[in-house]
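Ticket reopened. Same input as before:
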Amino acid sequence: MAFLNPLLLFGIIGIAAPIIIHLLAKKRIKRTLWAAMKFLRIVVEKNQHRLTLEDLILLILRCLVLIALALAMARPSFKQGGFGGFGGSNEAAIILLDNSASMSQSDGATSRFDKAQKAAEEALDALPSGSSVAVWLVSDVVKNVIPEPTHDFALARKIIREAQRSDRGTEMPAALRQAIEVMQRQTTAVKQIFLLTDGQAAGWKQLADTRLLLDSVKKDIQTRLVLVGESEQHNLGVTGLRMSSALAPVNQPVRFEVEVANYGVEEARNVQVSIGVDAEPPGDEAGIESIPPGESKRLSLFVQFRDPGFHSVTAHLPADRNPADDQRAVAVRVIGEINVLLVDGDPGVEPRESEVFYLRNALVPVPPEQREKYYIKTKTVTAAELASAKLSDYEAVVLTNVLDVPDGVVAGFEKYLRGGGGLIVFPGARISVSFYNEKLFAEHAFLPASFGAPRGSAEQQDQFFFLQSKGYEHPVVSIWKDPAAGTLGTAHFYRAFALEPAKSDVPRPDIGPPALILSYADGAPAVLERTWGYGRVIQFSSTADSAWNDLCIRPVFVPLIHRILGAIVTRQDEHLNLRVGTKFNYVMDTEMIGKDLTISKPAAKKDARDATSLRRIALNAGLPLLEFDETDMAGVYDAHIGEDASPTLRFATQSDPGESRLEELSPTDLKVFDGVAQIIRWSPEHSLRTLLQKERTGSEFWLVFAILALVLAVAETWFGNRWSRSK
Amino acid sequence: MAAKSTHNALLDAAAIQSAEHLGLQARTVVEGYMAGAHRSPFRGFAIEFAQHREYVPGDDTRHLDWKVLGKSDRYYIKQYEQETNYVAHLLLDGSESMKYASGKVSKLDYGRTIAACLAYLILLQRDAVAVGIFDAKMREYQPRTDSLAKIHQICQVLTAFVPTEQTAISNALTEIARQVKRRGIVILISDLMDDEEKITQGIQHLRFGGHEVIVFHVLDPYELKFPFQGTVEFEGLEAQGRILTRPSELRKSYLEEFNAFLDRMRLACERAGCPYVRISTDQPWTDVLSAFLATRQHRYG
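Engineering reply: fixed in the latest deploy. New output:
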């Protein structure tokens, strides 16, 4: 037996009221002389005992009414097997509110997240007074808004109500593990964990481990999985969107590849996909005839950018009940002009003898009169002039058959690459292999590979080898997967250095592992790349001119060079698109140092308190870096300086495609929790509060006492009226 | 004590004024009531001579047999088969229970007025009247008179009486029966708050003596209706202790008990051949006179 509102038991003191009234009534006695005492005495003697008894019964009834009322208001409850005392037990709880992307799933009116918020409030209400509670928002990360249990229920309620859904993925076991660690530190008698989630199967990857964990603490900690929402049979999601063109120049068609997945149980037919730039109406649209259940399909759509700068491209699907994956956005930096510094290690006498002759023409493949307007600008310098060049003015620096470079230039390369520059290295007969291998590869780890022994002979052009003719996996060469795009495998290579890739256990996190772009037909690496800082280094094994190969005179050379340049330019832009929840880092121009950027978040209400955030550009490792970690929502983030209309920077986050997979934990999966956690299927009709309170306190008896009070009151009124009648 | 009271009352200007007021009130009531009456309600007394009897002081000298006086020098009064004029004995209950008044008029006050009115009426009809006030015994007694001039004296006796004792009606009736040999009318004005059996015995005693008995049962409206509310402590007027109760809850039982008492008294009177008139002190006095005269007319036509 327990009382949920024990303080109201003091209401029992109210039974003094009828007694006092009874006594006061006796004091208000009228006195009179009387002649017919004989008859009155007879009557009184006949009735006095009855009157006294009636008085007593009425007094008892009135007292009982007050006692029953006080008991009803104190909400007595009975739980089999124990006496709970006077309520107010010492309990601690953590409410884990799943705010992953799948919680956006709606039943047409209410999203799973809305339901989870309501259920969380009910769980909060169900805790007895004096309890403490923590509130965490969990997805693939734990955002412990109230890290430790607090007695401030008002704060907890506010946090729950104002909680925002994120577009993050789901990883519930990790959140449970953290919650258990916190609960184990609590000294309260009762410890509870409420996990309010949609039970998305994708978020429970280690069920057996989770069971073991819960089993080990089940004596101390009661875990409740409150499942909200119902299983969804239909869901289409945009699971991929990427620019498949090498570069995004102004007023040029830029191709984007859109991937649409069908996570429903039925085939999706005539799926219309559209794509648009910024907030403009869709610029291109196409339909997918059929997507079988569980499969995905890709299609290419084109957009054109009118202005250089930062833009966003969004692919849309017709709205369904999971709006989070009905669209996907990427940020694109549209190129107005790309400056490439060509370092000619062997200029020759005639222009055609220049090491960079073919390269320059491939980069600017337009007639001379149009070169001024073309978006790629080149400048050719000799190795000696390189020291005086300002590298930061160029998106890419190409070393072609350069013997070596001074140490000062090497140091400049380091800063240049760290800030997002691109370095392309073409070897040749004149290079100092030891310099490249010792300085650029071993010491600074710029190069993804060291130059080994060359093979073949430039003079014996009847002996040659080829590049691979299939298996183009690297994005730079992936367009040649399509035979219609031509082939790289026909170019003749007479001589080339062996590339010996660096070992992948690179000690520095800002240096990426070597990645193979192209190999020769025999599998030997032909072109390798690695990321370095925010930049990228691409290393060829043969010359840029026709001295060691005829690639440069083949039509595929132009797109290959453009795609390589694109890989360099978009290296920095890779950071413009990141997974939801990932920290955004971007190297800004040096003149931005100390300036404040206002970053507006996607899908936030304009008047929401956290719709925008302020960040200051600060030097980090010598670079003017913008860092931003509030990337819980998928979509486009705009960074403005002051009141500027056009964004200084635009980046986008994309959610985990797995979040679109809405399958719930199966009954078999749920059986794993038998005995270690309680599974509650929540619905608006079944109050979690009532359920939990009944569990905690047993059955409540307030209604019984309320009815008893009513019955007693009626009885008192009835008897009072009856007995007050003249007898 | 009674003498003293009377003496005091006689000297007391207020008492005198009260007595005069009572007499005047009686006259007003009676004359007002009798105005327009042409026949005596007491007609029908036989005038056939029956016997002589010796004169006793107080007898009306008009009934002296002057012939006998002239012949034998003895004073004899002529007596007839039936008295032409009767003697009415007005017996007013002066016990403490008669002091009860729910309003301004107590039962005793009401009884005084009734007694005065009846005395005046009777004297006006040239009948004789004697007035006695009793409680446990006869406390005041005004011997019979047929002189209207005595009405003032009667009123004085009525006015001056102050109740001090409990009731013993039977004692008073027995005393009257013993003292009054000549048959007459005994008018008992009382609340009859005494032993019922003894009251009945007293009435029957008078009846056996040949007296006609008329009972005026004077009651207070509160005694008849018992309209009390709330918690009331009743204190007995005749040393009957106190009772604390909620009278509203007992009203029905009380009225049943009290009405049974009234019925018993009425029945007892009727069995004894006595007219029984129940009076509430909120009734007009003329109602009482009407009731009285009605009993007379009923009996004598």
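Chain A has a mean pLDDT of 86. The first strand of chain A starts at residue 2 and ends at 3. Please confirm and we'll close it.
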